[in-house]
Amino acid sequence: MGLTSHALPEDCGGGGARSAVTQALMAEELACGDLALALAILSPLLLSLPLADYGSDAQKQRYLPGLAGPDFRPGALAVAEPRFDSDALRPRTRARPEGKGYVLDGVKCLVPWLEGVPCVGVVAQDEDGPQIFLVDAEAEGLRAEPAQYMGLRALPLVELQLESVRLPRSARLGEGAGSDVAAILARGRVGLAALATGVARAAFELARDYAKQRETFGAPIATRQSIAFLLADLATEIDGLRLLTWEAAWRLDRGEDARREAALASQQAQRVVLEAADGAVQIFGGHGYVREYLPELLLRNAGGFAGFEALTLV
Predict the structure, then answer these.
(1) Confidence of residue 13 (pLDDT cuts 50, 70, 90)
(2) Residue 98 class from Cβ within 10 Å (0-12 exposed, 13-18 middle, 19+ buried)?
């Protein structure tokens, strides 16, 4: 359907219609259906957008045509690290200059790893600060260990072990010019806020419809003040989150610094999506805790937003 290739340059086979607002709208709609599938569908953007923004001509020619082609090719970006003080802008993963290339050592987690991923962008610290390195999926010293999380059970996620992975100088995104990792992460936070809006909306709509159908003492529970006020509060919070996300995306489209707005949207998303999912479980009562009903799934997925980092980009 061209959901990810439309944002790529025309000379690489894309649609040349880059818009963060459009990407945010798309991410919300997909996540309203299912978060894991949304992340899988949007995974090519994890490679294609950083390449389009910062890649050298040689890197663009090598990777972008495949990501913009008619066949689905997933992407992967390794940002988070399995430690309590994980900081994407101060990674423990190191890229040590050696000879005519680099040697990478470190561990990454929460990395989407769909079948057929050609390479992974690894955020590592080098002499210029945090940079992204393009590592072939079959590179010697790179191990992808399957990981199980409370949510996102339909999305293959791995922990990446990098042990003396040797790369040429040309593997650094942008080569000599490098890349702006902070700007890339800001786009990731806007994307996550859009996804969280979709999950929160799904939870709200499920709870609202259930409350209209479920009757106690001869009347729908939606007529009970506690339920009605909860639903009204959730509707207000979700609309507020959506507007924060759109403002950040709008600033990105204008070429402005959107890091503040992206951070605000991301922080708000972590709170609102969890409140919405928990509210749906409460409104469903005992059924909300049963796996046959969607609120249980939404609550498990919503709980992960506090630790997600750059699982999609806009």
Answers:
(1) confident
(2) exposed
Helix (H) or strand (E) holding 67: helix 57-68
Partners of 220 in beta bridges: 215
What's residue 54's pLDDT?
95
**Joined tokens for residue 19:** 């818009």
Q: Show the domains of the chain with their CATH numbers.
A: 5-68 (no CATH), 77-177 (2.40.110.10), 181-306 (1.20.140.10)
The answer for 116, left when phi > 0, alpha when psi is -120 to 50, beta otherwise, is left
* pLDDT at residue 259, rounded to an integer: 94
What are 188-219's pLDDT values in tens digits? 999 999 999 999 999 999 999 999 999 889 89
Q: Pick from 161, 156, 163: which is nearest to 108 by CA?
A: 161
Which candidate, 74, 173, 80, 172, places its Cα nearest to that of 116? 74
Q: Which residues contact 294 (CB under 8 A, 6 or more apart)?
A: 202, 206, 280
**Secondary structure tally for the chain: helices H, strands E:** 8, 9
pLDDT at 211: 96
